[in-house]
């Protein structure tokens, strides 16, 4: 089977504390799948000594995955071991023995922020000109979508900024920050997820991407597009795109712009317009995130403060 070469015959003492008995995991429905990997809902019995079971999400590779993807799953595992923040997905365990590698993470009942935003749209709402499939996270698809308030949207920006501030403090560059990679748990708590591309920056705060994978062009800063330079400040650019996704309730960025034209447009100073229903104040934040010089962009710490203040003004 495909997982043979990824077999690990021994578990280091450090990993032993994460190892979870495969037999105690009951796989359930598939929550989502990509080209090489999938995420399955599962019940984990006796997790952390709990009597009952815990609902979890299990990330695994598909049969067609190559060594590169296996590597990405392992690097995600290694990074997640060290992260602990309410707005970052929490690792609960892993199955690395006697079968395919499984990463066990907390289950987020509302799925990705992107599908959550799209599900919250009303037909009559100005942004709705497409119908999106109801999410499999919604038990009754006939239920009316949960309406989101401006306060909810600001809180989303605030929570992502706080999670990213934490990641930047522990010197992690995410490189793929997008609404599809943020999850929504109960109580509308957001969790930054999908660390497959994340790199530790150590002392140097840049990372040069070596291999050519799929590139999320419309979320990337110009310096990442032309020089493969990824820094916390290029994550800030992506955060600006996520804000745009939030305020448009999940519209695809740069509508109508072919990805291959984007770089020249950005170079010429082109940026997305202020979306309908977006305050001047919030648009100004996006524009700051999209400054050409990475040093001119706000830090995540500054962004967290900005959203904190905007939320306070609304109480
Ligand atoms: O928007 P979704 O239904 O929610 O589609 C994506 C899909 O899997 C691929 O990423 C869902 N998903 C991923 N991780 C989790 C998780 N920890 N809890 C719940 N759903 C998840 C996501």
TrEMBL record:
ATP binds at residue 59. Residues 25-311 form the Protein kinase domain. It comes from the Eukaryota. It is found in: Membrane. This is receptor protein-tyrosine kinase.
